[in-house]
TrEMBL record:
All copies of domain Phospholipid/glycerol acyltransferase, residue ranges: 99-222
Keywords: Membrane, Transmembrane, Transmembrane helix
Protein name as annotated: Transmembrane protein 68
GO cellular component: membrane
Length: 318
């Protein structure tokens, strides 16, 4: 035996330390032994549920196999658009029980400008686009913030789905060529800084109204019920608001993904009137979107109530 410096007391301290480490490792081993089976027991059912949902998604695609085959025969990108639209439509049906009320107001042919409220993540607009592709056989062109075009790998997706960042001339060109065009006047600001009370943050923007006047097309207001309960933003915190106003950095965290009920409502088209100015038309469209919010959205929005909507067979007015 070699006695360490410090004598028997030092040896006793080392032994005590080693015993403590051994006890700690034994405790960890006990936790793993107890909780690993429990974790497996709880995780495996979720894996089964995920597999079931993937099976349902596959059935959505398979149900439209003939449409997809025909689309691919006509044009490669038409087939790709319909395939992705089918996947997104299936996701909306499964995760949000997605519905559209007023689809008949979207013309089967000819141009129209669709103006909508912008959620923290505009996933409702993706579902809407998918439904238009599948039910109307049309691609709705869209206006997006220029930041979206700087995300690596997004270029092809934006091109295939006819997404533009403006300016007004491009929007007018798309409408004069007979396309549908979707735009949210609130844009990134509304996405980040609106909240569960659903204020429209359009400021004094009237460019979209001038586009409609120059193109001589009707404007269709649109709003999706519970879109803020699906995803919410922390942009109302002072730090993130300051960063955006000072540096134009849209970095407010978004949380959610809750499987709440989504219903998209389309208002009556506002026809072209040569005697209406851009300021007047912008205000009229804003009032129309606000009217959809007032009629169909509980204020303030509630995540729990929006979740319970999934289990109601009949829609109740808020």
């Amino acid at each position: 035996w070699c006695i360490p410096a410090g004598g028997p007391d030092k040896l006793h301290q080392r032994g005590t330390f080693l015993c403590g480490v051994e006890d700690y490792l034994s405790f960890l081993e006990y936790l793993l032994w107890v909780f690993t089976p429990l974790a497996v027991v709880f995780i495996l059912p979720f894996l089964i549920v995920i597999l079931l949902y993937l099976s349902i998604l596959f059935l959505h695609v398979y149900k439209r196999k003939n449409q997809l085959r025909e689309a691919y025969c006509n044009n490669l990108w038409d087939g790709a658009r319909k395939t992705l639209a089918t996947l997104w439509d299936g996701h909306g049906a499964i995760w949000h029980g997605y519905e559209i009320h007023g689809m008949e107001k979207i013309p089967d042919r000819g141009p129209a400008l669709i103006v909508y409220y912008h959620g923290a993540i505009p996933i409702d607009y993706y579902y809407f686009q998918a439904r238009v592709i599948l039910q109307k056989g049309r691609t709705c062109h869209s206006v997006a913030d220029h930041l979206l075009f700087k995300i690596p790998g997004f270029k092809l997706l934006l091109e295939v789905f006819s997404v533009i960042h403006g300016p007004q001339e491009e929007c007018v060109r798309a409408l004069r060529n007979g396309h549908l065009l979707g735009i949210s006047p609130g844009g990134v600001r509304e996405a980040l800084f609106s909240d569960e009370t659903y204020p429209l943050l359009w400021s004094k923007r009237k460019g979209f109204a001038q586009v409609a006047i120059d193109s001589q097309v009707p404007v269709i207001p649109m709003f999706t019920q519970n879109v803020r309960e699906g995803f919410r933003s922390l942009g109302t915190l002072r730090l993130f608001r300051w960063l955006y106003e000072r540096f134009r950095l849209p970095i407010a965290p978004v949380y959610g993904g809750f499987p709440v009920k989504f219903r998209t409502f389309l208002g009556d088209p506002i026809p072209y009137d040569p005697n209406t100015s851009a300021v007047e038309l912008a205000e009229r469209v804003k009032l129309a979107v606000q009217s959809l919010i007032d009629e169909h959205q509980q204020i303030p929005g509630s995540i729990l109530c929006a979740l319970l909507e999934r289990f109601r067979t009949k829609r109740k007015a808020p």
